[in-house]
């Protein structure tokens, strides 16, 4: 499959790499198919911190994602079994990838991530959903630059 992207140019991807969001994403309900791309210019040498979710249907839509548990050990959103079951069969919690949408403004020190609405992907079924959790411990606009900078110093 050939995917056109204004951010990444032309991407060739196997059909089995496409993530399907049956309900779309909030604000983008008409877009259902996305390619998950691991970032190659992360702030750290550790793999899996930065990701992109590129729409297959709209070349201009791509979301920056962060693997928050990779640098915030206390982040553990409570996602219901009903939600997980809605993404298809799975063997264990490790079959799910949980990422969070990030906003990266011109002033990178103001980078923030939405901790209340993680994107959950079943790696076995390639189905995903953005889940809105009601947990007062987590912010919608959590600043992350300092935490990422600390991670870089450790690596």
Structural class: mainly beta
Q: Globular, elongated, flat, extended or rod-shaped: what is the shape?
A: globular
Per DSSP E runs of 2 or more residues, the count of β-strands stands at 11
Strand content: 25-35%
The CATH superfamily bears the name BH3618-like
Helix content: under 10%
CATH architecture: Roll
Order of helices and strands: EEEEEEHEEEEEH
Terminal CA distance: 36 Å
Question: What low-confidence regions span 5 or more consecutive residues with pLDDT below 50?
Answer: 41-46
Query: Could you give a short account of the major beta sheet?
Result: 9 strands, antiparallel
CATH-defined topology: BH3618-like
Overall number of domains: 1
Gyration radius over CA: 15 Å
Summed over residues and divided by their number, the pLDDT gives a mean of: 88
List keywords for this structure.
155 residues, mainly beta, BH3618-like, nine-stranded antiparallel β-sheet, two-stranded antiparallel sheet, 2 helices, 10% helix, 31% strand
Task: Please describe what this structure looks like.
With 155 residues, this protein is mainly β. It has a single domain, classed as BH3618-like (Roll), CATH 2.30.290.10. It is 10% helix and 31% strand. It has helices at 81-85, 145-154; strands at 2-5, 9-12, 18-20, 33-38, 50-55, 62-66, 96-103, 112-113, 119-122, 127-130, 142-143. A hairpin with an 8-residue loop joins strand 7 and strand 8.
């Amino acid at each position: 499959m050939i995917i056109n992207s204004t951010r990444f140019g032309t991407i060739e991807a196997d059909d089995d790499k496409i993530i399907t969001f049956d309900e779309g994403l909030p604000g983008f309900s008409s877009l259902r198919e996305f390619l998950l791309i691991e970032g190659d210019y992360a702030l750290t040498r550790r793999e899996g911190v930065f990701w992109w979710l590129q729409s297959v249907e709209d070349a201009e839509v791509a979301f920056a994602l962060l693997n928050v548990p990779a640098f915030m050990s206390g982040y553990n959103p409570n996602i219901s079994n009903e939600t997980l079951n809605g993404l298809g069969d799975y063997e264990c919690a490790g079959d799910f990838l949980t990422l969070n949408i990030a906003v990266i403004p011109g002033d990178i020190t103001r980078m923030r991530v939405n901790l209340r609405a993680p994107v959950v992907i079943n790696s076995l079924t390639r189905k995903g959903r953005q889940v809105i959790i009601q947990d007062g411990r987590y912010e919608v606009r959590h600043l992350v630059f300092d935490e990422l900078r600390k991670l870089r110093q450790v690596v």
